[in-house]
Amino acid sequence: MRIAQRTREIGVRIALGAKWGDVLKLVLKSGMLLITIGLTIGLAGALALTRLMTTLLFEVSPTDPITPRCAARVLYTGKARDQRSAVCVAA
Predict the structure, then answer these.
(1) Could you say which DSSP state residue 60 is in?
(2) How many distinct helices (H) and strands (E) make up the chain?
(3) What's the pTM value of the predicted model, to 2 decimals?
(4) Cβ–Cβ < 8 Å for 36, 53
(5) Which of 40, 53, 72, 87 could lock 62 by a disulfide, CB 3.0 to 4.6 Å apart?
(6) Secondary structure of residue 63 in the 3-state scheme
(7) How far is Cα 32 from Cα 7, in angstroms, rounded to an integer?
């Protein structure tokens, strides 16, 4: 639930004598739970896609940071040029 939806619950808890720290802990705990679930699902998906990309890529490592950056730049600009930009040159 979002905090805006829990405003009444928070108000009732404070009216019944809950401390601000306890209410804050409750809110942060629910937020951290969502963050943890999202990170777990995201990392698992990234790992699965990395393994899938290994079979699709030819002479490119799936964890190579330069290739995706160059591909994103080409897609963003909409132009596939023969020239290499400073971002795409390996250091």
Answers:
(1) -
(2) 3, 0
(3) 0.53
(4) no
(5) 53
(6) coil
(7) 18
Structure-block tokens of residue 80: 């596939």
Of 84, 49, 58, the closest CA to residue 69 belongs to: 84
State the DSSP H helix or E strand holding residue 45, giving kind and residue range, or none if neither. Answer: helix 20-56
The per-residue pLDDT for 33 is 92
Measured distance CA(57)–CA(75) in Å, rounded: 18
Interval 20-69: pLDDT, tens = 999 899 888 988 999 999 999 999 998 888 888 777 777 777 677 787 78
Q: How confident is the model at residue 1 (pLDDT cuts 50, 70, 90)?
A: low
Q: What is the DSSP letter of 2?
A: -
To which residue do tokens 């290499």 refer? 84
